Amino acid sequence: MNQEDPGFESDHNHQHCIAQALETAHTLCRTRHQRLTPVRELVLKLVWQNHQPLGAYELLPALADAGFNSAPPTVYRALEFLQEQGFVHRIASLNAYVGCPHPERPHRSGFLICRNCKRAVELNTHDVHSALKDSAATLGFEIEQEMVEVVGLCPDCRTSGADHAQ
Amino acid sequence: MNQEDPGFESDHNHQHCIAQALETAHTLCRTRHQRLTPVRELVLKLVWQNHQPLGAYELLPALADAGFNSAPPTVYRALEFLQEQGFVHRIASLNAYVGCPHPERPHRSGFLICRNCKRAVELNTHDVHSALKDSAATLGFEIEQEMVEVVGLCPDCRTSGADHAQ
DNA sequence: GATCATTATGTTATACTATAACAATCACTT
DNA sequence: AAGTGATTGTTATAGTATAACATAATGATC
């Protein structure tokens, strides 16, 4: 469906990203008999505002502006739901949340995170998963869940001279 | 040096693990002109008590028992030092810390974490790293740091019937 | 050995992240 | 319209981590 995965191209039409994410979420919720309530939809939209992972507490002011209760449980519940549906991922090393461009099917998520501009891009983890599976098999370990988070410099920040020491 | 990497074998001589880790740390600190102070050594020893990652706050009581100040900054400073030296790793998905069996040289760390017995085993991430490097290269991303954390069931817990739903 | 700069630790306070527990409301079925 | 389950509101608190400044220990230099 979504063929053009936005990588680190800074000039993609991000409104399109957001619109598509929301539409996909609505569709999937309908077929799954789940409810994309106003607060859930708003949180999803906020998380998608850009490709930089957002902390839960960064979302609270916007919830307040929209007239919702802005206590932490509100946003955490919404995030929990969105994660269960595969609409957002949590990035453990950042305690932050980011929209998922492929919520149609559950998948192992891996991220490239730019330490300079903070953008996070989901990567195809097929080969990574194969390697992990082999290592795990050798040790007799049964994989259930994988977290792959890679920090570094995105192409934009490399070329724009932002590549000074961390 | 350390040839026998403890995997998930539950019957290895763990006193040996601890003793070796401490000795290696002392040696490396000497050559690096770093100070393995009493509180740092104690934290390292505590983290090595078993192969289960420990949270920072779990270490505080033991620090108090040993007569140290047991306020959070004490343990976080020690952990920070130990991480810088490569003696321990932080596992982001658990907010916990675990001893590193190969502190001699910096390396990318990856972990297999058993959701039942909570043990964490560091795995060889050579192939995983290759796969990540390829994916990153395609996108023009420069890798600086990799976090790979895999949750599942270790061989012991699989065979002991602990493999019921999470 | 006394002085000084540096590093490490003690101490208090606070920021940040996340969840428990219970009440009130909403949405859907019957 | 009533009842049931899911969702949200609300208050409180647990869990993780760091800021900021004071004190003490260490190592280099005179």
TrEMBL record, chains A, B:
<keyword id="KW-0678">Repressor</keyword>
<dbReference type="InterPro" id="IPR002481">
    <property type="entry name" value="FUR"/>
</dbReference>
<dbReference type="GO" id="GO:0005829">
    <property type="term" value="C:cytosol"/>
</dbReference>
<dbReference type="InterPro" id="IPR036390">
    <property type="entry name" value="WH_DNA-bd_sf"/>
</dbReference>
<dbReference type="InterPro" id="IPR036388">
    <property type="entry name" value="WH-like_DNA-bd_sf"/>
</dbReference>
<dbReference type="GO" id="GO:0003700">
    <property type="term" value="F:DNA-binding transcription factor activity"/>
</dbReference>
<dbReference type="InterPro" id="IPR043135">
    <property type="entry name" value="Fur_C"/>
</dbReference>
<feature type="binding site">
    <location>
        <position position="117"/>
    </location>
    <ligand>
        <name>Zn(2+)</name>
    </ligand>
</feature>
<keyword id="KW-0479">Metal-binding</keyword>
<keyword id="KW-0238">DNA-binding</keyword>
<keyword id="KW-0804">Transcription</keyword>
<protein>
    <submittedName>
        <fullName>Zinc uptake regulation protein ZUR</fullName>
    </submittedName>
</protein>
<dbReference type="GO" id="GO:0008270">
    <property type="term" value="F:zinc ion binding"/>
</dbReference>
<feature type="binding site">
    <location>
        <position position="157"/>
    </location>
    <ligand>
        <name>Zn(2+)</name>
    </ligand>
</feature>
<feature type="binding site">
    <location>
        <position position="154"/>
    </location>
    <ligand>
        <name>Zn(2+)</name>
    </ligand>
</feature>
<dbReference type="GO" id="GO:1900376">
    <property type="term" value="P:regulation of secondary metabolite biosynthetic process"/>
</dbReference>
<feature type="binding site">
    <location>
        <position position="114"/>
    </location>
    <ligand>
        <name>Zn(2+)</name>
    </ligand>
</feature>
<dbReference type="GO" id="GO:0000976">
    <property type="term" value="F:transcription cis-regulatory region binding"/>
</dbReference>
<dbReference type="GO" id="GO:0045892">
    <property type="term" value="P:negative regulation of DNA-templated transcription"/>
</dbReference>
<dbReference type="Pfam" id="PF01475">
    <property type="entry name" value="FUR"/>
</dbReference>
<keyword id="KW-0862">Zinc</keyword>
<keyword id="KW-0805">Transcription regulation</keyword>
<comment type="similarity">
    <text>Belongs to the Fur family.</text>
</comment>
